[in-house]
Amino acid sequence: MINRAIKLPQRQSFFLFGPRQTGKSTLIQETFAKAVWSIDLLLTEVFLKYSKDPSLFRKEAMEKIKKEAVHTIFIDEIQRVPILLNEVQALMDDFDCRFILTGSSARKLKRGGANLLGGRAVERRLFPFIYEEIKDQFQLEEILLCGSLPAVFGKTRQEKIDVLSAYANTYLREEIQSEGLVRNLGGFSRFLDLAASQSGELVSFSAVARECQLPVRTVQSYYEILEDTLIGFRLEPWQKSIRKRMVGHPKLYFFDLGVTNAINRRLTSSLDAMIKGRLFEQFIILETYRKFHYERSEVRIFFWRTNHGAEVDLLIEKHGRIALAVEIKTSKHVTGAHLSGMRAFRQEYSKAPCVVVCLADHAYEIEGVKILPWESYFRRLPEFI
Q: At the top level of CATH, which class does the domain 295-384 belong to?
């Protein structure tokens, strides 16, 4: 069993959100094995039963609490029957019982006016495996190609390809439509292909709309769907002015490298230097994002870019101060030629610590910029939490 880095509340009720196949159900079952009544809303008969009569859940729960001394009730994929949250709140008010509510999409809950329990339950998110969870079995090249979803970890290459291809073609395209999130499956499929090919690049809604032959507002709503279903997350540009930050072009990163490669149909190809460089950058940014999220840190991450194209891949900001500027390179030996973005950044932020994360075998320094092997960078992240 792989120990997950996430810190789950031990006594308080909570929502646990995460994309499909990140191991939510397995984690809950292994962590809270005793006196738990489990309900899986992915099962058709269970879904239909509570959809027709939500009050039946409360009646059954009361029986479990009173007669079987159940203290924890686990509802999997709660977004499928959001009205059950009204019954959950009633039970919370009447009984000393904890609820664990998991879901692969917060969109139906947050945008559908569902009862989010008014602060009675906290929220956590689960991601694919992070480096510290699997470092004893970690292979960088394999992660860059196939990602770190628990469903593919430890499988053969062909098994990974089968799982990831099914994820990209069945879940992302068909199930998102079946959830009622999109009506135009053809348009969404074109959008998904383009968004995955541009993962980690600046997002221009108007340019994507032209390419996909869709209205700009539709493209914006599709990006929102990727974020709400936790398939992607937005990285905003750093600006001193919050107003300017909100109108700048963001980047969107898909949540797993294997899923990104599956959508792009490159699971069976060898990665050229340019693609490998982009995937390595996404790997470092995803790991940073996940680590800070698991630690419930107040840290936020951004990227920095000038109007002339000078760029730094990642800024770690805490309490309004830039704690670290990070440039990401796949080189084993970084030289001064790699530091053009850092030089431009330091003209404006001369006191901010700067590092280059790369494939070097050991740490060294150039022009006051620390060059760090990626493993060393991960060991430093707790400094900023």
A: alpha beta
